[in-house]
Design brief:
single chain; alpha+beta; Alpha-D-Glucose-1,6-Bisphosphate, Chain A, domain 4; 24% helix; globular; Polyketide cyclase; ASHA1/2-like_C; START-like_dom_sf
Length: 158
């Protein structure tokens, strides 16, 4: 008896950690994560992005849902659950991502915010599992860097 065996790509893992300093107090940086309109602005309203849905319930156990597309790329859907929130100091969340309905990755992210002179230093650490080839630590780091730059732009404009 012969069996048809389909090879499943192995899961790849990575940890990405980035630090950015912003010239605003920690409370302002934290508020950019806690306020739904501000979070949407810096995390989804970037050039070339079309947002279909964004909703956020910022509390431990609360969720964030986003559905969007970058240019003519695949439809992206993220589901986030907030695991830990310490005002002005820390946000920990777990999220999963799917593209065109296919799960692509899951991550645990820790955002730490601390005073740094007259501003704040944000340390963003993301531990990820990638389910499909084409998703990698390099792409995750690039995406995180774009988001943190956008956060800086929004903080500077407000």
């Amino acid at each position: 008896m012969s069996e048809n065996v389909v090879a499943t790509p192995p899961v790849a893992h990575s940890t990405v950690s980035l630090a950015r300093t912003y010239p605003v107090p920690p409370a302002r940086v934290f508020a950019a994560f806690a306020n739904e309109a501000t979070k949407r602005r810096w995390s989804l309203e970037l050039d070339g992005m079309h947002v279909d849905e964004f909703a956020m319930d910022f509390r431990v156990g609360g969720t964030e849902t986003a559905r969007f597309r970058v240019g003519n790329g695949p439809r992206v859907h993220t589901e986030t659950v907030f695991q830990d929130i310490v005002p002005d100091t820390r946000v920990v969340f777990a999220y999963r991502m799917a593209m065109d309905g296919t799960p692509t990755s899951a991550a645990l992210t820790t955002v730490q915010i601390a005073p740094a002179g007259d501003g704040a230093i944000l340390t963003y650490t993301e531990q990820s599992a990638y389910f499909h080839q084409g998703h990698s630590a390099e792409l995750a780091e690039e995406g995180c860097a774009v988001l943190l730059a956008s956060l800086g732009d929004v903080l500077a404009a407000t």
